[in-house]
């Protein structure tokens, strides 16, 4: 497939995943602030904003618009928090602000733009679905709906993202394009889970159930965790679950494994650099004794995060920039012989 | 809901003079007559919602930036009966065959038509669309107008006339297909028992035509790609539509490279040869090496590759010499010259302004004529005498005097009328028709085409960029046509 199309697929996957994860995290955070005093709620929202650190590496042409939108988002919330911006307003911004890089509306807009340049590659159903979702997020009454009924609105976003993923897996041919899309989703999801753990882990100190429940709920992992582990949770157990559980689809290990599967299928020959790097990262995570890791969790997490970002760069270099071109002269041009 | 009566001076498609419904419109008319105001409004709503959801839009330049409007399709269809269509089909095949012969004669032949004194040499050399870079670039089977859009109108007597030929990058076919898809969903019952001929096979037909012009050296499985300027182009929707319906890659200039006269696209596995390019980029932007050096949309070296015969480009470069509006006046002569036939669908009456006596007459009667620049498309630059202000007429007169070769004048054609929805009732509006003609191993006409409608009362401008809408066009099948599309 065209390198440009592959890149658009990859980014569509990343933006779509980012939108869904952000909606989940906002929802979990709002839920736990419901019964809290305002000061604590503000801290919690600040905590979420740190988790969402706007580090989505956009394609080059986006740098300008990112810089523009980066400035207002986290610092503004920080300073305005002191001025009494309420948690709800911050949450609304994270969801609806169309120009703030990282907001749900922004990510869905980008997903749509990417799919728009892939109109000939994707099923019409998928295009219609993303188009409709995008238009709903940009409707005038949408911010008010988010203010008035945040939970229902966030559920709508989650369900819309899930139905997009459903259309993708049920009506898209699972060829190269599909694999780049899933790869983008998995790498983005791995990054989001890493960040969540690194921001939330220090809060687990007191082994408070509420804190751990919030962490788990942010990635919709509470129920899966409860089923997997009946003993009352320790902070490190939660981190272990989110990092190395091999059946929960949002654990970092799971995401890396699925990414590896995609790259393996995409690599036409041998083990290209992104596959080597992924293999290293995955086996390190899988075979390092977790108790050793937990002793210095922050540095492991940041190494892991950097590793995932490195994989994304290598994917881009290998598949999208494609430095080594084929030798055109080696392709047959003899009449009647197709190369 | 659709009562209308005939008016003098115009040909009404659906009714006879006196108001009786024409036979081939009767089932449609009866169906619309039964609709209530509420039902029509509900259908309008449903249609808008469906187009919006599917993102079937076009971009209007000049207004607010990024104005992406949903496609305006009027609910009342145009109906063409089998016999009428058979005549149109013959006429279109005749015309496009002659134009292909003409273009091939000029670019790759001996320019016999010039030597024989049928078409003046200076007419060719003075065309802005005449590309010297395309001289002696061969096109398999001479299929230079691979996709042609021929604009037809009906005059006051109901006779069809060709208003202009579009041989470069005619657009609109995607809307033909989307209109049909929308109508089938919105008004399934209106099709009742009519055997409306299908338009769905366009992608297959186009792909077959494109593959048929592949360079002989590339074997029997040529790679076809659609070349688009990108998502900001007003017709991007159509480009993507075509690539999707053919199942081929939609490439931009930056996806292609030319090395040693071979064209390849950058893929995730390196470079891959491309044999046929259906380009939707104008000549001027196609190859910065030989055309506009500022163009970033094109592919450096593409023309050299075409000349070397390793890649075929459709439509061919330099087709502008065939749809120049002054050359248009000579098409009946071409048909006689190349085919030895008389023209089946006549031209509109046209004046060539470089001819002194014709110019004098036009300048005298400019307020009664339509004045058009020869190389524009999309309705830009047209001055309609009876509707223009004195200042506009004076300006047109001056432009003609400054550069007579650049303008033609035509008698006003009172475009025929058909009911269209006007907010709360159906009212007569003027329409034209753009059928699409494919050239490959044979010349093929897609049944119907894009009917455009001037939605403003009394307006004769049907271009979507200027407030026009469209209608689904139903060609009724005859017994010998039933199942013809199934084979393609």
Write up this protein.
- The complex is a heterodimer of chains A (339) and B (488).
- With 339 residues, chain A is an all-alpha fold.
- Chain A has two domains: 1-172, no CATH class; 185-322, no CATH class.
- Chain A contains 17 helices and no strands.
- Chain B has 488 residues and is of the alpha+beta class.
- Chain B has two domains: 71-345 and 435-487, no CATH class; 349-412, Dna Ligase, domain 1 (2-Layer Sandwich).
- Helix content of chain B is 30%, strand content 22%.
- Chain B is built from 15 helices and 22 strands.
- Chain B has helices spanning 26-33, 37-54, 82-107, 112-115, 121-125, 173-186, 202-212, 236-246, 283-286, 302-308, 320-323, 325-328, 331-339, 356-364, 390-402; strands at 57-60, 67-70, 73-80, 147-154, 160-166, 224-227, 249-251, 256-259, 262-267, 270-273, 276-279, 312-314, 350-352, 369-373, 383-384, 407-411, 417-421, 426-434, 436-439, 443-445, 450-454, 468-475.
- Chain B has a five-stranded mixed beta sheet with strand order 3-22-21-18-17.
- In chain B, a hairpin with a 3-residue loop joins β19 (436-439) and β20.
- The chains are: A mainly alpha (339), B alpha+beta (488).
- The A-B interface holds A 1-6, 113, 116-117, 119-121, 124, 127-128, 131-132, 135, 176, 180, 266, 268, 319-320, 322, 324-326, 328-329, 331, 333-339 and B 52-55, 216-221, 226, 230-231, 236-237, 239-244, 249-252, 254-255, 257, 259-260, 262, 264-273, 310.
């Amino acid at each position: 497939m065209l390198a440009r199309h592959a890149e658009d697929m990859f980014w569509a996957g990343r933006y779509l995943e980012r939108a869904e994860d952000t909606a989940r995290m906002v929802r979990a955070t709002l839920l736990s602030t419901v019964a809290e005093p305002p000061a604590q709620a503000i801290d919690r929202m600040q905590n979420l904003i740190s988790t969402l650190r706007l580090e989505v590496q956009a394609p080059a042409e986006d740098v300008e618009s990112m810089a523009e939108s980066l400035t207002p988002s986290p610092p503004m919330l920080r300073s305005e928090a002191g001025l009494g911006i309420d948690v709800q307003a911050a949450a609304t911004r994270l969801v609806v602000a169309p120009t703030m890089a990282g907001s749900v509306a922004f990510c869905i807009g980008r997903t749509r733009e990417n799919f728009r340049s892939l109109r000939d590659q994707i099923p019409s159903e998928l295009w219609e679905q993303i188009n409709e979702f995008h238009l709903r997020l940009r409707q005038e009454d949408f911010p008010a709906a988010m203010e008035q009924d945040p939970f229902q609105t966030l559920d709508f976003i989650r369900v819309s993202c899930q139905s997009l993923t459903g259309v993708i897996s049920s009506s898209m041919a699972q060829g190269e394009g599909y694999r780049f899309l899933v790869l983008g989703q998995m790498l983005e999801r791995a990054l989001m889970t890493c960040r969540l753990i690194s921001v939330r882990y220090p809060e687990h100190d007191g082994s408070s159930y509420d804190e751990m429940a919030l962490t788990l709920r942010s990635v919709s992992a509470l129920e899966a965790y409860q089923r997997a582990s009946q003993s009352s949770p320790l902070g490190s157990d939660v981190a272990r679950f989110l990092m190395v559980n091999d059946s929960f689809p949002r654990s970092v290990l799971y995401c890396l494994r699925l990414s590896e599967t995609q790259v393996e299928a995409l690599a036409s020959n041998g083990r290209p650099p992104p596959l080597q790097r992924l293999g290293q990262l995955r086996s390190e995570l899988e075979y390092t004794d977790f108790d050793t890791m937990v002793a210095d969790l922050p540095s492991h997490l940041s190494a892991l995060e950097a590793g995932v970002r490195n994989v994304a760069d290598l994917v881009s270099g290998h598949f999208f920039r494609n430095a080594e071109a084929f030798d055109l002269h080696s392709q047959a041009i003899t009449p009647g012989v197709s190369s | 809901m659709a009562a209308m009566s005939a008016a003098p001076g115009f040909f009404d498609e659906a009714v006879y003079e006196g108001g009786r419904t024409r036979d081939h419109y009767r089932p449609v008319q009866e169906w619309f007559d039964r609709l209530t105001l509420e039902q029509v409004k509900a259908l309008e709503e449903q249609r808008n919602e469906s187009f919006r959801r599917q993102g079937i839009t076009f971009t209007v330049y000049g207004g607010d930036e990024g104005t992406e409007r949903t496609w305006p399709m009027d609910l009342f269809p145009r109906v063409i009966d089998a016999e009428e269509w058979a005549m149109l089909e013959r006429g279109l095949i005749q015309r496009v065959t002659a134009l292909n012969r003409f273009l091939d004669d000029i670019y790759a032949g001996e320019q016999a038509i010039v030597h024989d004194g049928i078409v003046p040499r200076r007419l060719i050399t003075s065309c802005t669309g005449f590309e010297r870079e395309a001289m002696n670039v061969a096109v398999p089977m001479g299929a230079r107008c691979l996709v042609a859009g021929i604009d037809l109108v009906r005059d006051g007597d109901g006779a069809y006339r060709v208003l202009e030929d579009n041989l470069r990058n005619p657009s609109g076919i995607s809307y033909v297909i989307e209109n049909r898809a929308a109508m089938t969903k919105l008004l399934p019952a209106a099709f009742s028992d009519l055997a409306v001929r299908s338009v769905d096979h366009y992608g297959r037909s186009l792909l077959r035509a494109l593959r048929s012009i592949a360079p002989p050296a590339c074997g029997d499985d040529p790679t076809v790609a659609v070349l688009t300027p990108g998502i900001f182009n007003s017709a991007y929707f159509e480009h993507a539509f075509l690539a999707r319906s053919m199942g081929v890659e939609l490439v931009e200039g930056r996806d292609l490279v030319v090395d040693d006269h071979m064209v390849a696209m950058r893929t995730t596995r390196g470079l891959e040869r491309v044999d046929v390019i259906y380009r939707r980029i104008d000549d001027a932007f196609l190859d910065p090496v030989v055309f506009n050096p500022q163009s970033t949309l094109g592919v450096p070296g593409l023309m050299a590759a075409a000349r070397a015969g390793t890649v075929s480009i459709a439509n061919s470069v330099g087709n502008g010499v065939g749809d120049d509006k002054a050359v248009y006046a000579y098409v009946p002569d071409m048909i006689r010259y190349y085919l030895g036939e008389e023209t089946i669908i006549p031209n509109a009456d046209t004046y060539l302004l470089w001819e002194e006596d014709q110019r004098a007459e036009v300048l005298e009667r400019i307020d009664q004529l339509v004045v058009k620049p020869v190389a524009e498309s999309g309705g830009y630059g047209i001055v309609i005498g009876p509707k223009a202000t004195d200042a506009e007429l004076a300006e047109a007169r001056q432009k003609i005097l400054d550069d007579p070769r650049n303008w033609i004048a035509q008698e006003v054609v009172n475009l025929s009328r058909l009911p269209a929805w006007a907010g709360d009732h159906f009212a007569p509006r003027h329409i034209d028709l753009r059928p699409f003609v494919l050239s490959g191993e044979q010349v093929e006409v897609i049944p119907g085409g894009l009917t455009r409608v001037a939605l403003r009362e009394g307006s004769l401008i049907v271009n979507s960029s200027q407030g026009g809408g469209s209608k689904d066009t139903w060609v009724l099948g005859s017994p010998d046509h039933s199942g013809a599309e199934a084979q393609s």
